[in-house]
Amino acid sequence: MVARIGDDKWGNDYVENLKKFNVDTTHVHITSDRGTGIAQINVSKSGENQIVIVAGANDVLSVDDVEIAKDLICNASVLLCQLETPIVATKKAFQLCKGVRILNAAPAASHLDKELLSLTTILCVNESEASVLTGNPAVTMSDIAKAIEDLLRLGCKIVIITLGENGAAFASIDDPQPLHVMSDKVTAVDTTGAGDAFLGALAALLAVYPDTPLKNAIASACKVASVSVTKEGTQTSYPHIPCADLLSDKCVFEKIL
Questions:
Q1: How far apart are CA 51 and CA 195, in angstroms?
Q2: Is 196 assigned a catalytic role?
Q3: How far is CA 99 from CA 72, 74, 94, 204, 212, in A?
Q4: What are the tens digits of pLDDT across the range 55-104?
Q5: Does the global pTM surpass 0.90?
Q6: What is the pLDDT of residues 185-206, one digit of tens each?
Q7: Catalytically annotated residue among 196, 211, 245, 249
């Protein structure tokens, strides 16, 4: 993990937590004049969430930090980034990485750097983020198909739109026919962090099984996200499923016409 934290209890506890899960924190740097980034999360009775983010030290992750981690990034089979750190650092990391470059365009942004998008292998957004990016609603499946078409036109190679309980939809420049990948139906308790669970699982699967069909990797990532929403919390709700047990040949999908 390449990141910046504050010199405070939040940051120190977070590093210890990462180490507990065997995450390499060599490139997690302490920033003395900033607090650790935090999020205030409100969850409704139906399990939906609203999040207020205080960026803190995330705002000062720099190109220099990326350069320090250059060897790690250059040799990474998958690199996963988002919009909670400066675009200039993300762009530099994408320029260095020779593997799959996943951009989670969250928090929602009305426009994205064109060069960054041209460097992106997979752009992943949820329905509301897709709506903000395209300026159009992403409610019906035909809306989703149009949003994917519009986002592919921006320059990335593959677009995935996560659809909550309805799974995910995706298409690529090489195969622009959108596919809807179904998800298991569950009773949601807390949807906080479901997108992160999906993305983490997807990145892990693409790293360990680079030759697997993307629709199967997406279906498996949906499985992880589905399990996560049945429990309260974010990281505490994530299932510990080995990649070998997670990846399946079974994948229920349909073309979006």
A1: 13
A2: yes
A3: 12, 8, 9, 13, 15
A4: 889 999 999 999 999 999 999 999 999 999 999 999 999 999 999 999 99
A5: yes
A6: 898 888 888 999 999 999 999 9
A7: 196
